[in-house]
Amino acid sequence: MDLLSRLGLFTPLDFAAMTLLVGLWLLSGYLIENPGKSWPSVSHLMANYRRAWMVHMVTRDPRIFDAQILSSLRQGTSFFASATMIALGAGLALLGNTEQLIGLAGDLAIPQDPEIVWEIKILVVLAFLGNAFFKFVWSNRLFGYCAVIMAAVPNETDNPLAPVRATKAGEINITAARSFNRGLRAIYFALAAGAWLVGAEALIGATLLVCLILVRREFASQSRKVLLGPEPTETP
Description:
Blueprint: H1 3-7, H2 12-33, H3 42-59, H4 64-95, H5 98-107, H6 115-151, H7 161-194, H8 200-219, H9 222-227
Helix pairs in contact: 2-7, 2-8, 3-7, 4-6, 6-7, 7-8
């Protein structure tokens, strides 16, 4: 069966649902990472706190507290990378044994599609999971780079290298967090892509729901209100 024949197994609604899935995945990521100045996202607000963290880290002695925070961040990336790898293995195993999935679909009164259709739908989920895995691994490595740079920040506050290297550590930390958040979003949309196994309508509904959850948490959550709360001006 050639490519055109395989594409012919999908309906126009399937193509529309897939376009919506990929489009909202890219669009939501862009809006979260590039918000307007008048309505910043939680990720954008946290980036400022990460920079402030490195500024205060320069004068903190000892820096055990900073090392513990960074260690917990790396543990989070390691956990999600491991969990994503397990999910990828499960998906690959399912890809090689779609008969049981088709049988389950029949029991649930889901329309019986050719085996190749089920395999392509599973591949879409695996593509998002694969993207998430690479993002988590890269985030873990960047947090490691950040740890090395933090260790290279001089203890002397009047050393000209201290603020420069602290700034570098802050930007690497922000980049690592951005990659981690991208991995999380990929997992969200992988869950939405799994709804395609039920049908194109379910995929559209799941995609819109996931996008709504992400936008709400970044732009209308209680945590965002807390971050935007007033703070006293620092005295010199």
